[in-house]
Write a structure and sequence with these properties.
The chain has 71 residues and is mainly α. It has a two-stranded antiparallel ribbon with strand order 1-2. A hairpin with a 5-residue loop joins β1 and β2. It starts with a helix and ends in a 5-residue tail after the last strand.
């Protein structure tokens, strides 16, 4: 459903939206979008914050973490 996809895209940050736009195959776009949204939903539930509030940053070794929360 296009409305569900639009709602999911609103959860992504600009860098993720750009990456989503660069993916050519629709099946890979769907996998990327689903994985990014689920990552936000699960971290949001665990940290008791809105999925939209999750902001992922990366260490110098490319390990992701949620901004504002200890390791």
């Amino acid at each position: 459903n296009i409305h569900e996809i639009e709602a999911q895209l609103r959860l992504l940050k600009n860098e993720e939206i750009d990456k989503h736009a660069r993916i050519f195959k629709q099946s890979e776009k769907n996998i990327f979008l689903t994985s990014q949204v689920m990552k936000r939903v699960l971290c949001g539930l665990y940290l008791k914050i809105s999925p939209a509030e999750t902001n992922f940053l990366f260490t110098e070794h490319k390990k992701p973490y949620v901004s504002g929360f200890p390791n």
